[in-house]
Amino acid sequence: MTTKQNTPILPEAQLGPAERLLELVLGGSAHLWHNRPGVDVHGTWQPARRGVKVLPANQKQVSPGLFVPAAVKLYRQLLDIYKLNTDLMAHFASYALTQTDWRDLKVATCALMLVQGHAGQPVREEDGTVAFYDDDHRVIGEAMILHYERKSTRMLTPKAVLRVAELLETPEIARMNREAGFGDPGSKKPPMGRWKRVAQKWLQAREKNLPMLEGLVKAGFKETLKKIARKAGYRPESQAFFELLGWKQKQASGGHRQVGLVGLTLVKRERFDGLSEAEICESIETGRLSYKEVVGRLPKDVGLTPAIMVALLPSLSDRDLRMMTPTLEELGLLSEPTIRARWEKAVQTATDQRALHIAKNVRSKELREKLEEASDNAARLAVAEATAEADVRVMFLIDKSGSMEGAIEQSKEALTRILAGFPVDKLHIASFDTVGTVLKPKAPSRMAVQHMLQGLKASGGTTHAAAVHALHRDGVTVPTEAKLIVIVVGDEAGEAGDQFTRAFRECGYTVAAMALLLSVAGARGSTVRTCAGQLRVPFSEVSVEQFADPYQVPRVLKALMDAPTATGASQSGWVERVMRTPLLKVA
C-alpha cells in the first residue's frame, strides 16, 4: 500500500536566490518569440490550428512575435533573483551568454543588466566628496551585446540585439523596471538603460569592418540591421553602410543629415530570373552567397535543384544541415559520400534534441535512426560538460507503483530522451514498487533504453528504498573519490523519508545530490525531499513535461549533473559553476 504524503513544497517566499535560479532553469522551457500565429491558453502559447475561426472563451489569438505572458514570467523571475542577490544575477548573465545556447534567456538577462540600478554611481560622504563608486553591472549588459567570437554560436545575433530593445519597450516589462527603480517613475518612455549607446557601438564596429557587415547582410539580417539603426538613432560615418544595406536616404526635416544623400550606389539583390542552373551556381560560388540569400531569388521554373543545393552547402552550419535533412534526402544528396560524411559529422555535434522532431519528416529508417543518434549525442555532450570536473556516478530510481498509473508512459519518454547520454559504466538504474529490480540497457542508445523500459507497468505499493537495496545486492559500488547523484523518477508518494535515508546509509552509499523528475498522475508525496534534507544534500526538482522541449533537455541535464564540490554542501554544483563564471567586461 502506498502512503500518500502531501507535505507542501517550500513556499515561494522562502526560496533563496540560488533556489529560484535553479527553479528558473529547470522549469523555464517556454519560448518568448514565435514566428507563427498562436493561441494564448491561460498564459501558455500554443500553435494556432488551421480552420478554427471561433476560439473558446478562455483562449485568445496571438500574433507572431513576442509572447508577452512568457516574457513577463521570465523577466519577473530574473528580477526577483536580482533583488535578492545582485552578484548572483551578474554571474548568471555572464554564464547565460558564454555557457548556454538559450537565446531567449540571453536576451532577457541582457535587458535586465542594461537597466538595473548598479551603474557605477559615485557614493558620497556627508560633505559631498566621493567616497567610492558603486559596482557597474550595466557593463555586463554592454559586454553581452559587444561580445564577439568568430564562428561562435554563443554571441548575440542582430535579431537578439533588436529583441533586447523590444523586450524593454514592452509596457509590462517597462512597468516592472519602473517599479524596481530602474527609471523615472513619471516618464512615459520605457527605461532603456544603456541599450541605445551600446547598440550604436555594436553598429559602429560592424561599419568599420565592412566584411563583417556584408556577412550579416548575406545571412539575411539586412532589415534587422536597419531596425537597430533606426531605434538606436545611429549616424553612420560613411555611405558604405547605407549602400551595403540597400538603404535609400532622404534629408531629415531638420536638414541635419550629411551622409548618404548624394551619389549613393545601393547594393541590390536581384532575382535569378532568366539564369540557367549553371549560371545560378556560378553566382552562388562567386558571390559566396548563403542559403537565405538565394532561396527567395530562385526562378519558379528552376527551383532548388541538387546542383544549387551543393553550391550552397559551404554556407550551411552543422545545425542547418541537421534541420535540412528532409530536403537533402528529397534531393538525393545524402547518398553522395562527401555530403553524407559532412552530415554525419553534423549529427555528432548536436547540442539540442530537435533532431527527434526532424526525424518525423524523413522517409528513410536509417536516417531516422541517425537523427535519433543526434538526440543522444546532445544528451551525452551535456552530461560530459557537467561532469568534466569530477567523477560522477548516477543512480536512476524509477517508480512503477500503482500511483504511477497514467504517468508511467510519460516517465518512459523522458527517460528515453536522457538515459542514453550517460556512460554505461557510471549509470545504475533500478525500478521499484515494493520490490526493487535492477535494469540494464543493452547498449548506450535511445533504442536500447526504449527496449529496457517497455516492460514497466504501474502496479503495487511504493518503497523507494527497495531500489537502493536492489542495486546494492547487484554489487553496485561507488568509488570513495566519486560523487553520487541520485535521480528519482515518480511522484515521491511512498514510505517515510527517514526509511529512504536509512537505505543509503545501510548500503554504504554517500549521496552528493538528489533530484526528482516529477511525474504525477494523482497526489504527490515528499519522500525524496525529506530524504535529501536528512542527508543534508542539495535537492532539485523538474517536471518530466520539461523534457518535451528539445532545447530544454541539455539545460536540465547540466543543472542536475553538476554535483557540489564540497561534501554536505547545501548549494547545487551548477550554482557553484555559475558563481565561478568570470564577469563579462567590455574589451
Largest sheet: 6 strands, mixed
Show unreliable segments.
1-10
Radius of gyration: 27 Å
Question: In what range is the share of β-strand residues?
Answer: 5-15%
What shape does the CA trace take?
globular
Share of helix, binned: 40-55%
Structural class: alpha/beta
Write out the strand line-up for the largest beta sheet, numbering strands in chain order.
10-9-8-11-12-13
* Total beta strands: 13
Number of domains: 4
With helices defined by DSSP (H or I, 4 residues minimum), what is the helix count?
26
Distance between the termini: 63 Å
Whole-number mean pLDDT? 88
Please characterize this protein's 3D structure.
By secondary structure, the protein is of the alpha/beta class. The protein has 4 domains: 12-45 and 59-122 and 131-245, no CATH class; 271-311, no CATH class; 316-386, no CATH class; 389-548, von Willebrand factor, type A domain (Rossmann fold, 3-Layer(aba) Sandwich), CATH 3.40.50. Helices cover 45% and strands 11% of the residues. The chain contains 26 helices and 13 strands. The strands form 4 sheets. It has a 6-stranded mixed beta sheet, with helices on both faces. It has a 3-stranded antiparallel beta sheet with strand order 3-2-4, with no helix packed on it. Strands 1-5 form a two-stranded antiparallel ribbon. Strand 9 (427-432) and strand 10 form a beta hairpin. Helix 2 packs across helix 4 (103-115) and helix 17 (337-348) packs parallel to helix 19 (365-386). The longest helix has 22 residues, at 365-386. Residues 1-10 have low confidence and may be disordered. Pfam families: VWA_2. Residues 394-491 form the VWFA domain.
